[in-house]
Amino acid sequence: MMIDSNPPLLHHYQALLRKSDKLHQHANNNNNDRTFEIHIDPIVDECELPLIDLSGLESCNATERVACTAAICKAASEWGFFQVVNHGINTELLGNMKEEQIKLFKVPFEEKVTSGILHNPYRWGNPTATRSNQFSWSEAFHIPLTRIADAASWGEFTALREAINEFAPAMLKVSRLLASILAENLGYPNDAIEKLCDASTSFMRLNHYPSCPKSKDEIFGLIPHTDSDFLTILYQDQVGGLLLMKDSKWVAVKPNPDALIVNIGDLFQAWSNDVYKSVEHKVVANEKMDRYSIAYFLCPSHSTIINGYMKPSLYRKFTFGEYRHQIQEDVKKIGHKIGLPRFLL
């Protein structure tokens, strides 16, 4: 008997689909309300994100250093997403991370759910989904970086722990570098981000998107959302599937094997008074191939107060903990995140 490592995504999705159909039918019988209709926007175009060579920051030429900094700030403002090359993380380490990540996801599903590895950070689908268009065809391990040192919680995955122990500090270094440049551009001290965000407050998410028998226009790999942190750095394979909202339409991001993807989070948008953009993005499921990615989330402590750098501020003051709590409440009540609009003045 073959032991399946993938979660029962199709079973859960079909149950939600039946529920959605019933709700849709009921809504149509009452005032022709289309609230429950399932609709995933088609891909309009494929784009290449702004590509920034970080070696320019170390150039002996002052003009090149300034141009590199300006390119980072422009991309954060106009796109909210960009790619970086020559980021200092070697390809051997990236390849090792992917290899160990795949081994983790190949563990039988029941073992992932019940083993307690890393104090139960395993998630799949969307436990709060009430309709099929709130469901994500994926599984993930959410790993607070404070747990890397806890050797006992890694079980048989000591090689993964060793890889993350090298990978996480490298990602922290890149994320702090970029966030510090963006903060300085707003007038903050160059150590502002370093004081707010470190390894004890940030986390990683290992993502796996199993191949999906449904059409990519029918189901999400990851539902549309914005990130709730300051900055996210993504290492992905070459399967593709990441889409972002640009000029009011979805565009597909063309994978670049040499680049890391960087995107602005909600906290940076609020902190910058909307100078930088936290852009909605999603992942579409692939019918033939599994997709893997690793996201590093640069976060502050839950007590950190977020307040716009300009006056008048567009948002009221809030703590990161308050923001996270509001998101969780929204997801429980309505099935999705509302985010920053909740905090507009």
From TrEMBL:
Oxidoreductase in keyword set: yes
Pfam families: 2OG-FeII_Oxy, DIOX_N
Protein name: Fe2OG dioxygenase domain-containing protein
UniProt record similarity statement: Belongs to the iron/ascorbate-dependent oxidoreductase family.
Keywords annotated in UniProt: Iron, Metal-binding, Oxidoreductase
Key word Oxidoreductase present: yes
Ranges for domain Fe2OG dioxygenase: 200-300
InterPro entries: DIOX_N (IPR026992), IPNS-like_FE2OG_OXY (IPR044861), IPNS-like_sf (IPR027443), Iron_ascorbate_oxido_reductase (IPR050231), Oxoglu/Fe-dep_dioxygenase_dom (IPR005123)
Organism for this UniProt entry: Stylosanthes scabra
UniProt-listed PROSITE patterns: FE2OG_OXY (PS51471)
